[in-house]
Give the backbone structure.
Amino acid sequence: MHKATATYIAPPGDSKVTEMAGVTFFSGQPVELNSYDHPHLIAKLPGNKHFNIEVGPDDGELPNVARKRGRPTNAERAAALAAKEKAEADVALAEATAKEAKANLDVVDPPKTETEQRPSILPPA
């Protein structure tokens, strides 16, 4: 990623502030630009007589990019579908294990009469 410093030089009698492509320039104050966010400005400003621009060498650094908003990619959809299927399989396995554990409990300790039920883990209503 290239980094550049651009300085606006206002012509006599003109405004001391200008805005270009969403970047505000004050006369005589340098503004930092990079080739990821503003490649069009770095390409366009050297031809403008009201700007002094110094472009540094490519440092090979990748920018911090936030996740794009909008539709997910096909890879993201496939990963989400795989995660959903794994979660459903885990739920089915947990339900089967719970049924087996209840069946084993009923064999070892059969349910009592209606008045002598096993204690419940839930508090009485």
Residues 74-108 form the longest helix (35 residues). The chain has two domains: 3-55, 72-109. The chain has two helices and five strands.
